[in-house]
Amino acid sequence: AQTVTQSQPEMSVQEAETVTLSCTYDTSESDYYLFWYKQPPSRQMILVIRQEAYKQQNATENRFSVNFQKAAKSFSLKISDSQLGDAAMYFCAYRSPNHTGGGNKLTFGTGTQLKVEL
Amino acid sequence: DSGVTQTPKHLITATGQRVTLRCSPRSGDLSVYWYQQSLDQGLQFLIQYYNGEERAKGNILERFSAQQFPDLHSELNLSSLELGDSALYFCASSLLQGSGANVLTFGAGSRLTVL
């Protein structure tokens, strides 16, 4: 079974600075998908960014980018120019390839609580 | 608003009782997923339905059951409730069974408190 590990329970960043959240995963599959979701105090789960494992290019969405290292099974999230609204719990998630019988379920890490300070 | 509607938002009940959580997926989405988020277990996948049929099962207790109706809304039934069932229950939906980086869109969750 796949596992997702987020080793940083909490992180802090100054407003306008850059922060990187770590995520590693364990899988024997070669084709899969990785996601970062954000959960603000409202508890809503919001997709931040996604990465297809077959793509070598790192995904970018505005101030959010990933560093995907397939061989190392690492998928870190970089937030640039941090804003107060970025304060939230961030979850890394893994999804198996389409052809497997596991449907589209996501396997989540334990989350990293990000605090943004003035 | 994500387009995924969950009711009720909050529910307080007693041990031994039974509750039903309801989810309406985003318009056009055929798959529905249920997740449980608790302090000690994190986000746990419970079950997935696609167009009315069960497609994947996770760590769902035998006391829990779910179904997806012809209009694609889904219900999660929790019975013989225990204190440890207190959690935030999320419903998510996606368009297709397994197509590309098929993104799950989450509802706002139903917070269940068992006293």
What does this structure look like?
- The complex is a heterodimer of chains A (118) and B (115).
- Chain A has 118 residues and is mainly β.
- Chain A is built from no helices and twelve strands.
- Chain A has strands spanning 3-5, 10-14, 19-21, 24-26, 33-39, 46-52, 60-61, 64-69, 74-79, 88-95, 106-108, 112-117.
- The model of chain A has no long low-confidence stretch (mean pLDDT 92).
- Chain B is an all-beta fold.
- Chain B has strands spanning 5-7, 10-13, 19-24, 31-38, 42-50, 53-57, 64-68, 74-78, 87-94, 105-106, 110-114.
- In chain B, the strands form two sheets. In chain B, strands 2, 4, 5, 6, 9, 10 and 11 form a seven-stranded mixed sheet that branches. Chain B has a four-stranded antiparallel sheet with strand order 1-3-8-7, with no helix packed on it.
- The radius of gyration of chain B is 13 Å and the shape is globular.
- The chains are: A mainly beta (118), B mainly beta (115).
- Chains A and B meet through strand 5, strand 6 and strand 11 of A and strand 5, strand 9 and strand 10 of B.
Profile the largest sheet of chain B.
7 strands, mixed
Uncertain residue ranges of chain B: none
Multimeric state of these chains? heterodimer
Shape, principal axes of CA atoms of chain A: globular
Spans of chain A with pLDDT under 50 lasting ≥5 residues? Answer: none
Relative helix content of chain B:
under 10%
Report the average pLDDT across residues of chain B: 92
Helix/sheet category of chain A? mainly beta
List the chains of the largest interface with their residue counts. Answer: A-B, 27 and 28 residues
What percent of residues of chain A are in strands? Answer: over 45%
Spatial extent as radius of gyration of chain A:
14 Å
Structural category of chain B: mainly beta
Please bin the fraction of helical residues of chain A: under 10%
- Sheet with the most strands of chain A? 6 strands, mixed
The proportion of residues in beta strands of chain B is over 45%
Total count of strands of chain A: 12
Order of helices and strands of chain A: EEEEEEEEEEEE
Number of helices of chain A: 0
Average pLDDT taken over every residue of chain A: 92
Beginning-to-end CA distance, first to last residue of chain A: 41 Å
